[in-house]
Amino acid sequence: LLFLNQLQKDLEEVKELLMKATRKRLRDVLMAEKHKLELEIKNQPPPKPKDAAEEEKSSLGGYTVKINNYGWDQSDKFIKIYISLNGVQKLPAENVQVNFTERSFDLLVKNLNGKNYTMTFNNLLKPISVEGSSKKIKTDMVLVMCRKKREEKWECLTQVEKESKEKEKAAYDTSDPSEGLMNLLKKMYAEGDDEMKRTINKAWVESREKQSKGDIPMDI
Fold first, then answer.
1. Regarding the domain with residue range 1-43, which homologous superfamily does it belong to in the CATH classification?
2. Does residue 153 contact residue 74 with C-beta atoms inside 8 Å?
3. Residue 57 confidence (pLDDT) above 70
4. More confident residue, 83 or 205
5. Which of 48, 116, 119, 194 is 20 to 30 Å from 216 at the Cα level?
């Protein structure tokens, strides 16, 4: 399901770029990527019915689940991370453990409906106070309270997120829209598999052939 969500986000971004693209060659490559993403989304296996999925999980017995879904918010003094866990309020307090360091925390919830749940955050964006940080158990939720060492706004949770955002901004924040699109295409080519490289190369060759026939202006 997480992979499907990523594909759908990629498709939405490609569609947005298509609306901005004016050069034929770039549109050809973006259209090829759009069709590929649509095909990948179409071929994703349908999600299991909830009952079947729950039955499969329960048949596996006790095991550890890594928590990937969470929400977060902040005040002047705290970073607040919200983790939904059905029935967590029924556990003994010692079954919910959070360990803090100045730049990380990890959560362990033991024996919740026969499973253990873990979540780890490393390289927090800014330092936190270990003594001032804590957890709160609410109905179907664990709230992790990270006390900020300095009362300032965090733009994201981790250093990795910040670096990723800065790289994206540097790649696309340009006064020339076609330059931003070319940066995207270079990234797609560099990170793509053989099929992706063939698709981009094919679009390039076809555009050059059309250019030589005079179908499109020579400056494209």
1. UVR domain (4.10.860.10)
2. yes
3. no
4. 83
5. 194
